[in-house]
């Protein structure tokens, strides 16, 4: 059974100007749909990766999954419980302690005034649990030393801080960890260390990851299943092999083509056209059609739904063979 | 590269006096860049990539300063010039592109005015001619409807468009050298591809020498002609990009290449270099890489590594890989 | 997990310095030792504060004990022997024969006490409201910050006088002199919270968006716990700077009020009261009754202020 099930998840932000400005300048209210009708499942003990460019809604989905943001529509069920509508406090508590999150910026995600021990143990202590020796044990588990527990975050490098974040995330023995670009701020050699650590811990503790990244090579290495987001919508979902060997959606193809290659010496590619459109006023039909090299008339008129094509799910008229 | 190089850096040392002692963020670095050539500079955060570039432009923040070495630009020695003289060279002979396009543009002045001012400062043209040139350079960097958008302010452009404007600004006085410090790090993959293609095209057309600082090996592979790998303020390896990336001679380059997810394709774990780059204040004796190096021997711990010069070895290493010696 | 790297620490083993050495070598003290202005003003502040605290031990006379006062000693110039009693006084005496040096020591006690207490009050109010405004946002924030803005448009001294007047109106006449000091503290404290609230709100907005606050929310910490345990410790350094500068201002505000006759009563004279009393004798030639309290006030306020300025630079990483 799936540990996480996401159904028609949608999040709309009100980005209107302040009330007074609207009245004076006669502006209407403005809404930004950051995530729109996203559905996917994450089976237990697997890694589901979300990729997409800046502003595609990756972090917003991550925050809704862990319960930091309420969805506008749709919902997230974890172990069959939907945090947004559940009323039983015990059940909420049990789901809460099953979820943890690792953030992108290792400098902002640790409270600079707290000792490492207190940071790591907080998830347990906050629930009134006993945490003697916990921090020391976890620090060794993530490749630091027990004596680091007495230090402050500023005494560590970026990679070491991210290890501390991992240790903290493990403290409450969660089942699901949402990782929002956990290695984007790190150098490749440090990234390798952190990614290896995360894979090891996954096997050891039977963790499930929702892994958010914009780096395709990292995603290919880590994921069991990959969802590609464009302007808040899932445009393709596939296994890494299928996605990288035979991408179906023109946007995925464009991303793969544009990503610089380590073996692409002197590669001359025609760079992709255009930029991501304004999310407040997205294009009609398939949101990708103004940049799409394969677009047909139907693309600007009707929005393609996410449909199963072979092993993958794709939202593209051409890929679905329905033009 | 038979002709005289555009930029020639010899044994450059940048030092920062601190309470804990003298730090050397750039330690005896030497390299050349020829006309029309793109030199990629890679390395971990803090390796001294930006510092090397800033030293060339004379933009070192105090208390950092050049304490020895020579910098030659088009046959003229520029490391001892006064700030005023250097400012004249900047823009005219050296163009700059930084990571955050917002910091390179004045947010309060329309981009057209910024362009024309730069052009008129360095070239003897009238205001009308300068404006024509400005429009042309905006068209060149792919800004649609340049003639209409020339009077827009920087905030009216998206991040990718802004970086195009910065490139137009860097190139409008037709400098012979461009220093681009992480020009695409803040941008998305698709926009990055556009910017890189643009930079490559313009430099090839004009024969501009480019120093491209980045930490993305993929960008280096696709863009650079030669690559300099930096570690703890020193050059670890310098050579033609294909050779350095496919058959690295320095163990650090080899480790760096191995730790990218692509190199370990199909394996459950990534190859990793143990440890992390030491802080400048706590460098080990001998070769700076020796505590992390799989090939380190006593010689490496006792003697500073050999330095790379124009005629010297490709890798600053006592026991380079791929050589039987 | 067999080949996890060892802790990527620096390879060279460094001897761990003792706690004391660590403090001595800290950036903060290092900067302090390099700034002569900071060291001198710190020395002056310490000297003045300590002599105020230990006034009963240091002062040659107790100016408030009528038994030890001799009216014949009135108007003795500094360092000279009195015409009638042949007593000499280091800084001279006032009209009632009180030793000016001793009254200054005791006056400084009152000034410093009022200053510290008022700043503490302003700090507590300002930090609390600033944290709430910054963290909760919405209408709560709008209301708090508008009140602060309105108060800011009036000079602080005017607000203090207003509050002083109102509070005095509520105290029964027989307690007025006794309560004057506390009313003074209330008035100055209430007139000064705005700065703290603004700075704390600004810093809270910055901290609130950081990921460690998200991480705390995620595990279900209450807003109160997040404000108190997570955000508060991170917004304290600007508060410290403002508190120091506020202290100088509060001491001057107290002196101003007392000088205007609405502050500390003559039975408990602060530096301001002393200056008011001394000012009456300036033109009859007894300059010392005015001059010495004024110099003390100036030295105190100036050195505290300089210390605050230095602190602001020292705690600002950008200026390093
Ligand atoms: N609190 C908010 N208020 C208004 N708009 C928001 C808010 N949070 C996110 N957005 C908008 O929602 C869209 C999706 O943002 P999100 O942070 O999820 O993107 P992302 O895919 O994580 O991008 P990045 O790679 O830059 O982190 C963006 O257009 C963003 O501007
Ligand atoms: N004022 C200073 N005092 C002490 N050390 C400094 C100072 N300024 C810079 N450094 C050090 O100089 C070194 C070189 O920095 P530089 O910015 O050149 O690195 P970089 O390779 O560009 O890194 P990045 O990828 O993070 O941009 C760093 O280790 C940095 O810590
Ligand atoms: S639906 Fe049309 S526009 Fe959209 S990706 Fe497919 S082909 Fe392109
Ligand atoms: Mg994000
Ligand atoms: Mg840099």
TrEMBL record, chain A:
Looking up InterPro entries in the UniProt record yields: AAA+_ATPase (IPR003593), ABC_transp_ATP-bind (IPR050319), ABC_transporter-like_ATP-bd (IPR003439), ABC_transporter-like_CS (IPR017871), Oligopep_ABC_C (IPR013563), P-loop_NTPase (IPR027417)
Main location (coarse class): membrane
Q: Which UniProt keywords apply?
A: ATP-binding, Nucleotide-binding, Transport
**Which compartment or compartments is the protein found in?**
Cell inner membrane
The membrane topology noted for this protein in its Swiss-Prot or TrEMBL record is: Peripheral membrane protein
> What are the recorded GO MF terms, alphabetically?
ATP binding; ATP hydrolysis activity
Which SMART domains does the annotation name? AAA
Give every ABC transporter domain span: 10-256
* Pfam families xref list: ABC_tran (PF00005), oligo_HPY (PF08352)
Q: Which GO terms describe its biological process?
A: peptide transport; transmembrane transport
| GO CC terms, sorted | plasma membrane
Q: Family, per the entry?
A: Belongs to the ABC transporter superfamily.
- Record-given protein name: Oligopeptide transport ATP-binding protein OppF
Which organism does this record belong to? Pontivivens insulae
Taxonomic path? Bacteria, Pseudomonadati, Pseudomonadota, Alphaproteobacteria, Rhodobacterales
Q: Which gene encodes it?
A: oppF_1
From TrEMBL, chain B:
* GO biological process: one example: transmembrane transport
Q: Which GO terms describe its molecular function?
A: ATP binding; ATP hydrolysis activity
Protein's membrane topology:
Peripheral membrane protein
Localization = Cell inner membrane
Note the superkingdom of the native organism: Bacteria
Q: Which GO terms describe its cellular component?
A: plasma membrane
Enumerate the Pfam families for this protein: ABC_tran, oligo_HPY
CDD domains named in the record: ABC_NikE_OppD_transporters
Per its UniProt record, what InterPro entries does this chain match? AAA+_ATPase (IPR003593), ABC_Ni/Peptide_Import (IPR050388), ABC_transporter-like_ATP-bd (IPR003439), ABC_transporter-like_CS (IPR017871), Oligopep_ABC_C (IPR013563), P-loop_NTPase (IPR027417)
Mainly localized where?
Answer: membrane
* Span of domain ABC transporter: 7-257
Key words of the record: ATP-binding, Cell membrane, Membrane, Nucleotide-binding, Transport
Mind telling me which PANTHER family this protein's record contains? DIPEPTIDE TRANSPORT ATP-BINDING PROTEIN DPPD, OLIGOPEPTIDE TRANSPORT ATP-BINDING PROTEIN APPD
Protein family according to the UniProt entry: Belongs to the ABC transporter superfamily.
Q: What is this protein called?
A: Oligopeptide transport ATP-binding protein OppD
Species assigned in the record: Pontivivens insulae
The root-end lineage is: Bacteria, Pseudomonadati, Pseudomonadota, Alphaproteobacteria, Rhodobacterales
Q: Which gene encodes it?
A: oppD_1
TrEMBL record, chain C:
Q: Where in the cell is it found?
A: Cell membrane
Stretches that traverse the bilayer: 37-59, 110-136, 148-167, 179-200, 231-253, 287-311
Q: Which UniProt keywords apply?
A: Cell membrane, Membrane, Transmembrane, Transmembrane helix, Transport
Identify the InterPro entries for this entry: BP-dependent_transpt_permease (IPR050366), MetI-like (IPR000515), MetI-like_sf (IPR035906), OppC_N (IPR025966)
Q: What is its main location?
A: membrane
- Identify the CDD domains for this entry: TM_PBP2
Q: Where is the ABC transmembrane type-1 domain?
A: 108-308
Q: Which GO terms describe its cellular component?
A: plasma membrane
Could you say which protein family the record assigns here? Belongs to the binding-protein-dependent transport system permease family.
- Protein name per its UniProtKB record: Glutathione transport system permease protein GsiD
Natural source organism: Pontivivens insulae
């Amino acid at each position: 059974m799936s540990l996480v099930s996401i159904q028609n998840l949608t999040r709309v932000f009100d980005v209107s100007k302040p009330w007074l400005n609207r009245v004076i300048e006669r502006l209407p209210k403005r809404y930004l749909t950051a995530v729109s009708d996203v559905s996917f499942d994450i089976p237990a003990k697997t890694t589901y990766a979300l990729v997409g460019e800046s502003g595609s809604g990756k972090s917003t989905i991550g925050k809704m999954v862990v319960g930091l943001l309420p969805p506008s529509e749709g919902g997230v069920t974890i172990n069959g419980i939907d945090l947004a509508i559940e009323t039983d406090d015990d059940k909420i508590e049990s789901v809460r302690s099953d979820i943890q999150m690792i953030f992108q910026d290792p400098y902002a995600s640790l409270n600079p005034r707290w000792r490492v021990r207190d940071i790591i143990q907080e998830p347990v202590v906050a629930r009134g649990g006993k945490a003697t020796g916990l921090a020391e044990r976890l620090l060794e588990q993530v490749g630091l030393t027990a004596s680091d527990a007495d230090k402050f975050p500023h005494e560590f490098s970026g990679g070491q801080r991210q290890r501390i974040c991992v240790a903290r995330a493990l403290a409450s023995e969660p089942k699901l960890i949402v990782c929002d670009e956990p290695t984007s701020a790190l150098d490749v050699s440090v990234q390798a260390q952190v990614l290896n650590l995360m894979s090891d811990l996954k096997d050891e503790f039977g963790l499930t990851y929702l892994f958010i990244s914009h780096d395709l090579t990292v995603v290919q290495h880590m994921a069991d299943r990959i969802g590609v987001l464009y302007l808040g919508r899932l445009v393709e979902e596939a296994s890494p092999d299928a996605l990288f060997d035979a991408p179906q959606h023109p946007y995925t193809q464009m991303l793969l083509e544009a990503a610089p290659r380590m073996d692409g010496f002197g590669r001359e590619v025609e760079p992709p056209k255009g930029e991501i459109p304004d999310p407040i006023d997205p294009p009609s039909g398939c949101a990708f059609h103004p940049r799409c090299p394969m677009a047909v008339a139907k693309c600007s008129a009707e929005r393609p739904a996410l449909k199963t094509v072979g092993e993958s799910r794709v939202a593209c008229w051409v890929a679905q063979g329905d033009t | 590269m038979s002709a005289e190089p555009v930029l020639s850096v010899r044994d450059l040392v940048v030092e920062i006096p601190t309470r804990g002692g003298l730090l050397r963020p750039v330690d005896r670095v030497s390299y050349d860049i020829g006309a029309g050539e793109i030199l990629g500079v890679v390395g971990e955060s803090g390796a001294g990539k930006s510092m090397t570039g800033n030293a060339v432009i004379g933009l070192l923040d105090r208390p950092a300063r050049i304490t020895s070495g020579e910098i030659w630009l088009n046959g003229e020695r520029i490391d001892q010039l006064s700030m005023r003289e250097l400012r004249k060279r900047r823009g005219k002979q050296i163009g700059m592109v930084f990571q955050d396009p917002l910091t390179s543009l004045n947010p309060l002045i329309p981009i057209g005015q910024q362009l024309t001012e730069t052009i008129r400062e360095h070239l003897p043209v009238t205001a009308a001619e300068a404006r024509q040139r400005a429009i042309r350079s905006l068209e060149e960097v792919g800004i649609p409807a340049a003639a209409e958008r020339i009077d827009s302010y920087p905030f009216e452009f998206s991040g990718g468009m802004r970086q195009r404007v910065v490139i137009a600004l860097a190139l409008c006085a037709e400098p012979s050298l461009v220093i681009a410090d992480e020009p695409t790090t803040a941008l998305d993959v698709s926009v990055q591809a556009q910017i890189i293609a643009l930079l490559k095209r313009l430099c090839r057309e004009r024969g501009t020498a480019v120093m491209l600082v980045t930490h993305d090996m993929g960008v280096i592979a696709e863009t650079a002609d030669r690559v300099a790998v930096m570690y703890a303020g020193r050059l670890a390896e310098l050579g033609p990009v294909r050779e350095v990336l496919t058959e690295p001679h320095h163990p650090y380059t080899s480790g760096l290449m191995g730790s990218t997810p692509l190199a370990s394709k199909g394996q459950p774990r990534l190859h990793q270099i143990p440890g992390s780059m030491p802080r400048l204040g706590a460098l080990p004796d001998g070769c700076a890489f020796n505590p992390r190096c799989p090939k380190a021997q006593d010689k490496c711990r006792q003697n500073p590594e050999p330095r790379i010069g124009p005629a010297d070895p490709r890798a600053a290493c006592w026991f380079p890989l791929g050589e039987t010696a | 997990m067999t080949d996890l790297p060892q802790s990527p620490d620096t390879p060279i083993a460094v001897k761990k310095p003792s706690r004391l050495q660590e403090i001595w070598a800290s950036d903060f003290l290092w900067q302090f030792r390099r700034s002569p202005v900071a060291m001198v003003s710190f020395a002056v502040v310490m000297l003045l504060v300590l002599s105020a605290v230990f006034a009963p031990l240091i002062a040659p006379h107790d100016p408030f004990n009528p038994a030890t006062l001799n009216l014949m000693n009135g108007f003795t110039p500094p360092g000279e022997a009195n015409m009638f009693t042949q007593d000499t006084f280091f800084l001279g005496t006032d009209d009632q024969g009180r030793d000016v040096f001793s009254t200054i020591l005791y006056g400084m006690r009152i000034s410093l006490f009022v200053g510290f207490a008022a700043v503490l009050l302003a700090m507590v109010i300002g930090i609390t409201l600033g944290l709430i405004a910054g963290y909760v946002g919405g209408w709560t924030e709008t209301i708090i910050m508008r009140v602060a803005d309105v108060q800011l448009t009036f000079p602080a001294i005017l607000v203090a006088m207003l509050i002083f007047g109102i509070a005095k109106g509520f105290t029964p006449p027989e307690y007025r002199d006794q309560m004057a000091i506390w009313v003074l503290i209330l008035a100055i404290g209430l007139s000064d919270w705005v700065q703290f609230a603004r700075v704390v709100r600004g810093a809270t907005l910055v901290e609130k968006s950081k990921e460690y606050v998200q991480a705390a929310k995620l595990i279900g910490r209450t807003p109160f716990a997040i404000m108190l345990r997570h955000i508060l410790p991170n917004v304290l350094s600007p508060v410290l700077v403002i508190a120091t500068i506020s202290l100088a201002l509060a001491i001057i505000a107290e002196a101003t009020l007392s000088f205007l006759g609405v502050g500390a009563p003559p039975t408990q004279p602060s530096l301001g009261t002393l200056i008011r009393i001394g000012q009456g004798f300036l033109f009859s030639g007894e300059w010392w009754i005015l001059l010495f309290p004024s110099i003390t006030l100036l030295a105190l306020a100036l050195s505290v202020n300089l210390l605050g300025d230095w602190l602001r630079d020292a705690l600002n990483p950008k200026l390093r």
